[in-house]
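Aim 2 progress update. The chain analyzed this quarter is reproduced below.
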Amino acid sequence: MRFPGGCLVNTGSHEGYEAPGWERRRSYQWKDTIGPVEERATNANFWGYNQSYGLGYYEYFQFAEDIGAMPLPVVPALVTGCGQNQATDDPELLRRHIQDTLDLIEFANGPADSPWGARRAEMGHPEPFGLTHLGVGNEENLPDEFFARFTEFRKAINEKYPEITVISNSGPDDAGATFDRAWELNRAAKVDMVDEHYYNSPQWFLENNNRYDTYDRNGPKVFLGEYASQDNRFANSLAEAAFMTGLERNADVVRLASYAPLLADRDNTQWRPDLIWFTNAASWGSTSYETQKLFMTNVGDRVVPSTATPTPIVNGPITGAVGLSTWATSARYDDVTVTAADGTPLFADDFSAGAGKWTNISGRGNWTVDGGAYVQSDVAAENTMVTAGDPSWRNYDLSVKATKQAGAEGFLVGFGVRGSGDYYWWNLGGWANTRSAVEKATGGAKQTLVENGTRIEQGRTYDLRIEVRDRHVTLYLDGVEWGEFTDDKVAEPFRQVVTRDLATGELIVKVVNAQASAAPTRIDLGGTRVAPRGRVTTLAGAPDAVNTETATPIRPVESTVDGLSSSFDHTFPPHSITFLRLRPLP
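Predicted structure tokens:
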């Protein structure tokens, strides 16, 4: 159970409340969260609301102990992220945070007669909490600056508490320049474990089951500290389950995994990949909660080598209309042209005749024609997509002139647009104008395909060109190639992994069928004899099903299966997660 996690750790000031000015926009610092609740400091956190610290570190350790979870605290590294991206250069402040971290370990594990162990004992828990792992930092976008500070934390912790595994991180995404540099530093320093984070579309999870197959078996281990697909529908859980079979298959590399976020107040949320929902009167598990619980209670001890015949979803060429959008920014667009690969003109608009060719599919933003350009002027509006053209377009070049007028970011140019939740866009000056990327949205959930550190200057006009050829895309900024990618990963909806429970001797066959049709399957155990009857647990339902306070359409169904042998047939239902427990015979 990773805590406090996210942008609580690496945003705001790293000074203490005792510092002059009593800065309340600050990183989460554990010593402010213990003692009488009514005397604890408050924090104006990154997401714009006040945090009372009613659940502090003592309660956190208790909670983890009560539910049987392994506690994994994360402390600030004095490098901000989440779009702030500043490194604090203050050796004395760094020393103080390192000492605070050492004191945190003593608070968790020290004897009751040690200074901070005594404080824990006074609060009602004389026995140690048994802390074994601790993370430093969260999703820092400045890998070199982060790693210089991480090295100082690691050295101090290893000297005093060599039994504690100190966890580094690899930034906010599953790939890209920050990710690559962070891993380069972690490998070179032989870090024990690296925290990876990514929130991606269900499509990405179906396409990346083999992500860890090629990781260095002798390099740093992985703590997958935050991951989820971007909604709470059962379709999301199916994709996550398919991906998790790959995590289990690579358990020698991925030692720990932690779905995130864990808890969500139904009436106060900003997105939907949350595990447990609550109100003041009730709590309930999402479909992903049921999925995580099924995996957790059927882990097994050893992976048994296994293979399955694939049923890949075949991709055609990238098709779709074109689009313009903004995110917390005002921007001007002009001279939009679309030309087929053979040079045939498909579309042109210089806005001299208005914007009648465009449709606002987002319903957001303030779009007007001003001075012969198409302008979105609302600097608060997000994702203001307007589109034009034919959804069947393929193999074309899109050109447009774009100028940032005001706001936090840059501009977004869409291609392959098939609807408000299905498109590609070139996000220039995104993430508070700290980097740029091409993102692919599927069902409203996005994944990053290529990125770099490009930032956008206000008032400067940029010439953008996007060349789409089948599933290959090349992007040009002011006539210079900015990047390219081929979106040709295959989504595999049928995934499996087999583990062995050493306590019972059972084989646990775990199968995910994320497609709309049933999967009649021959299971061959390679001569292993099993009892004729086995136990089955199934999660199945409509891909759009969502668990709520009053209805849980996705819940485990227990049953038995007969006629088992070393080779047997079983049909896995459409949109299902099935665990078979098979008892080997002597």
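The chain has a mean pLDDT of 94. DSSP finds nine helices and 35 strands in the chain. These observations will guide the mutagenesis experiments scheduled for the next reporting period.
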